[in-house]
Each structure stands twice: as C-alpha cells, then as structure tokens.
Known about the structure:
By secondary structure, the protein is of the alpha/beta class. The protein is built from twelve helices and 14 strands.
Amino acid sequence: MNKRTLIALAAVWTAALALPAFAQNKEPIRIGAVLSTTGPAGYLGDPQLKTLQTYIAQINQEGGVLGRKLEMVHYDDASEAGKANGFAKRLIDDDKVDFLIAGTTTGATMAMAPLVEKAGIPLISLSGAVVVVEPVKKWIFKTPHTDRMAAEKVFEDMKKRGFAKVGLLSETSGFGQSGAKETKLVAQKYGITLVADETYGPKDTDTTAQLTKIRGVPGIQALLVFGLGQGPAVVTKNAAQLGMKLPLYQSHGVASNEFLKLAGPAAEGVRMPSPALLVANSLAANDPQRPLVTSYAATYWKQYKDEPSTFGGYALDALMLGLHAVKTTGGTNKEALRNAIEKTRGFMGTTGQFNMSATDHMGLDLSAFRMVEVKNGGWSLLK
C-alpha cells in the first residue's frame, strides 16, 4: 500500500476527530439508534451499541464534529421488529434526532422504513437483507453486505470444491426468509441445485427433525444455513449431535466470536463469508482494510476487554458515514445529509469500500467479503 493510499485512509477515519473544540451555544448533533441489544439478536445489537458509545465518547473528547457535541439517544427493540416503528417515531418526533443508525435486524429496519420515508430523515441500517435497499428507498442506506452477496460468495466456494447438490436450512425471520429467496435466485448461476429446503424458527431450541430430513436426501453434498443470532448455533450443535458429515456453511448473520461460544466444538469446520474484521490479524500487510480493522479491534478491546464483532463494525461504519456527511455538508440539514451519503465514493470502512450512488444505497461489491473457516476453535482465512 503506497503512502498516498495510507494518507487517504487515515483522512477518512480521522475526519470526524481532528476538529475544533465545542463552540459556544451550538446545538449537539443528535443521533438516534434503535438496536436489538437483548433477545435472540442480542449478541448482534450489544456490540453495536457499545461501539457507538465508545466512538461517540472519543469523538466528543477530541472536540466533536464542526465544533458540535455528539448526542446519541438509543432504544432496545428486544429483537422484536414490532417495537422498532414506535421507537423510531419517538426518536423523530420527540427526540428530534438528525439521522438514524437503526435496525439490527431486517424485520426492524423494514418496520421503520415507511415512517422514515414519510418523515424524510436519513437512516443507515445495520441489517443484512437485500430488501432494505432493493428497491432503492430515498432515505434508507445500509452498511452490511446483502444476503444475496452472502449466497453468491458461499456458492463460489462450493463450486470450487465441486459441490453441486446443496441443502438449504433457513430461519423464518425477515433475514432468513430474504436469504432463502436470494439463495434460490442465484443458485443456478453457480451450477448449484438445491435438493433440500427446510426452515426453523428464530427461537427454536432443536432442529434435529429438519436436519434428519436433509441428511436423508440422496446425493446431497453440503448444507447452507441462513439465519442470525442464536438459531444457527443451535443448528450447528444439532448437526454435530447427529453425526452429520456434510460440509456446513453459514451466512454472515453469525460472523462473530459469539457464534463460536454458543456453538462450541461443533463449530469446527464451519465456513462462511465475513467482513475482514473477523480475520484482521490474518490480512496481508498491504491489505487496505488492515489498518482500519486492527485499529477498531484494539479500541474495542481496550474498552471492553473483548474481541469486537463484525456487527459492531457495521455500526462503526454507519457512524462514520453519517458524520462524514455532516462534515461534508457543514451541518445537519436532512436533505443535504441524505444527498451526501448517496454520493459517498471510495469510503473505506471495516466492512469494505463504500461506493454509493442513486441506484445503490449500500455501495459494496463481492470483493468486500472474505471466506473464513473455523479451525482449532478460531477463525481462519480461506485462501
């Protein structure tokens, strides 16, 4: 990586930090957050909240943005999408926030979408399904890769290994349903035939019945599980208990060390697509994301004595994208912020390089994903 690239990357991450001290009588920049910090998706939302709190405090300590203090108001939807709309309404009408970082889950994001679009306030979602940004919604953006991209990345690896007959086990959550739909749409492109198609509920504590049916399908060569939170760990443990020998793939919905804790030894050999953060120390020295993800990992560890998760990385990227727009526009006019976010180009985050446009409110391509495998109880980068 050349000196110019390093300077550019450093500028992106420090733009919100190297700013003047708080100006007198300036209103704070209000950021609203609706996150799933408890419930089945709690291990996704908890590091998101911690990341936002850590970096907002750090930015305030360094002088804020445009001399204005950052103020976050956050609510926990307890992994229940139905609660998200009410919290978003409170943030917009009562708390008067300038932009939203909200929607740990796809269901929560889509529950807020009509209100956000009507109110005309930028929302940067932390959820994975493609439905969040397709079709494009004027006021909604997202930082995670889509479920379609996850299926494509998995199928790339399967095709390389000669797997053509694959089983699908998906969660009945919004993310799981969208993931199943996108998986079916792209399978043929990679020469994959889905020979099994089963579902499980996000709160199910046993999936042996579904796995037993899948195992009995003649000629099946691998299994893809599409879900988030605790469910995929249940599936992984049940598969081990049944003695299943099928190669097991997960989606980026479980790209976290918490998955390893929940699944235990059963996770050994599991493969999945993931942002670079999960294998930060395995990245090449000249990898353009390495300085960013290692810096985030060190900051998170210092604060919480824990490894960061890719889900926290989504929140950090959302915060930096929002603040970059504030600095670019010189204020918090909502229409101006929306336009600035949409014009984001060459913005390197923990998730990848964002190049958004009027037709792409995510701005990531497939190269932003890394294929990883659980080896010796930890994450290993697949070459």
